[in-house]
Design goal:
Elements (H helix, E strand, L loop, with lengths): L6 H7 L5 E5 L6 H8 L4 E4 L3 H9 L1 H7 L4 E4 L7 H12 L5 E5 L2 H11 L4 E5 L5 H6 L7 H7 L3 H5 L4 H20 L5 H13 L3 E2 L2 H8 L3 H13 L3 E4 L15 E4 L2 H7 L5 H5 L4 H18 L7 E5 L5 E8 L2 E8 L10 H10 L6 E5 L5 E2 L4 E4 L8
Parallel strand pairs: 1-4, 1-5, 2-3, 3-4, 11-12, 12-14
Antiparallel strand pairs: 6-8, 7-8, 9-10, 10-11, 13-14
Helix pairs in contact: 3-4, 8-14, 11-14, 12-13
Length: about 375
Amino acid sequence: MIERSLTAKIRAYIRIFPIVTITGPRQSGKTTLLKYLLPEWSYVSLEDPDNLLFAEDDTRGFLETNKPPLIIDEAQKSPKLFSYIQTKADGSNKAGQYILSGSQNFLLLEKISQSLSGRAGILTLMPLNFNELRAAGFALKEPELCLFRGFYPAVWSQKINPGDYYPSYVQTYLERDLRQIIHIADLHLFQKFLKLCAGRTGQILNLASFASDCGVSHNTIRSWISVLEASHIVFLLPPYFKNINKRLVKSSKLYFWDAGLASYLLGVENEKQIETHPLRGALFETMMIAEILKNFLNIGKRASASFFRDKTGHEVDLLIEKAGGQKAIEIKAGQTVNSDFFDQLLYWQRVSGTKNKDLFLVYAGEKNETRTKTSVLSWKNVMPFI
């Protein structure tokens, strides 16, 4: 069992809310964590056809048989449950009655907004982060290892080769579940779509180009990406929108939550291959931005995050809005800090007035450094933004 950073927030939420909802991608460790954390709670999974049939055919009887405190896994499979759970929770007026977990975030949250608004605390469990791996005794030796292996718990805790894990993950989840949700009958088209997504990680999302390469409409691409986003496979980082410069780029950037999954879809077969891969920089940027955003989710928050790019080519990879000021973060895959690494941060400082203390360069080297105008952070240490 790898200790998860979200544990403290789950414990806090079950003392506050009658219902706690935990979403996240499949295989991120939701079931393992909940069973380990709350062994005294009853557990039932609606992945089991018998349980699902019971919940659908006799919802009241299902909840009488499975009494709180109760964990219901893949709860979104039985929409009828939510109104009954609402009644149960309101009737007892106690915290810590139900935990609803699920991987299909869009379905689960839709049901919560309809029936359980104001009654449910919502948390997200993503794949592992650097701190969790270090605490479990795994050495983070070089970024290429993490880019190849990714961060799904089974790859580390069960020592599964990524070349064995990711094909199964794609076949059993992405190609089965998601293809059914977005109604793609042609498996080869869906496989092509996933690989095109991986090839565009860290890039501005160009729906027209995407649609042309896939042979479908840009509205279709938009809906497919929305499903990947809601399933915690990818996320869209919005552009900075304040009117510093009227020539700002207005499209979002596409990223994968897990760089290992993106690497697999790009055909990467070992970590050495990443050293010379043309998308090494994009994969490193993907991993680092996902790491920063995961750290926010682990304390029950969603980062107010964006990127800056204008039409003359000036760009800052990540901006984080904080009460004490906006953090500007530039990400470089080089292991040695070069003077030109700071160019974009200093340009941003000139147009925005950001203070020196809020400028950060994250690179693939080992040392943290304090420069005159910016802080330099090793890729292994990105907690100062939280």
